[in-house]
Design a protein that fits this description.
CATH architecture of the largest domain: Beta Barrel
Number of helices: 4
CATH class of the largest domain: Mainly Beta
Number of domains: 2
CATH topology of the largest domain: OB fold (Dihydrolipoamide Acetyltransferase, E2P)
Strand content: 35-45%
Low-confidence stretches: none
CATH superfamily of the largest domain: Nucleic acid-binding proteins
Shape: elongated
Mean pLDDT: 81
Length: 217
């Protein structure tokens, strides 16, 4: 009798241990799946019409959506001062696109919507294609006049005339802005200057010159 009782307890213990191990494996598997899902970027594919484009973005109104969405290339190569910038191959593809064309676009979300692949299903025709040809390529360049309030190795701050606060303008990558860096060596903060800038991921300063007073001429 005692032998049967002992054997029954032994079998019950073994069964419990097996079930516990099985449950632990399931839990671990679920956690791995959850971790894998979190690590995967949100991505998808849309089909629709190009409503606008620039040197570093394309805007597509997908079928069934009320508004167009802007898609930009992935950033490659590290920080701008180390030569980093939007993916060059994707910039070339965007440059060949025409507003009004119907496209299929693969995207993923990394800080913002990124275009991974784009395929033209039907090229634009008529007025839409002609109007797009007249548009200037690349981001619009602008000029500002104001006071240089700060400068560093990566950027400057300028309080433009009519603005309440100073804004930050970053240097371009590589050797593109060596002239700006050199010019800044002779321009102390507090000087009124004129800058040329454009928006490329963020405000970028392209050139800077001090404004001379009439008495200095």
């Amino acid at each position: 009798m005692l032998h049967r009782t002992f054997l029954g307890k032994l079998l019950a213990g073994a069964l419990f241990a097996t079930l516990a191990a099985f449950a632990a494996d399931l839990t671990a598997g679920d956690k791995k799946d959850e971790k894998g899902k979190k690590d995967e970027p949100c991505k998808g594919t849309v089909v629709g019409q190009i409503t606008a484009k620039g040197e570093n973005f394309v805007e597509v109104k997908a079928d069934g959506e009320e508004k167009a969405r802007k898609y930009v290339p992935h950033w490659r190569g590290g920080a701008p001062d180390k030569g980093g910038g939007p993916d060059k191959e994707m910039l070339k593809q965007i440059g060949k696109l025409t507003v009004g064309s119907r496209v299929r676009l693969d995207w993923e979300f990394e800080e913002r919507l990124r275009v991974v692949k784009i395929e033209v299903l039907k090229a634009a025709e008529g007025k839409e294609a002609k109007s797009d040809e007249k548009k200037k390529d690349g981001p619009e360049k602008k000029k500002l006049v104001g006071v240089l309030t700060a400068k560093s190795e990566k950027s400057i701050e300028l309080k433009a005339d009519g603005e309440e606060k100073a804004r930050q303008y970053f240097f371009m990558g590589g050797a593109a802005n060596e002239d700006v860096r050199k010019a800044l060596e002779d321009i102390p903060t507090g000087t009124r200057v004129v800058i040329e800038w454009m928006f490329l991921e963020r405000n970028r300063v392209l050139s800077i010159e001090p404004l001379k007073k009439s008495s200095d001429k």
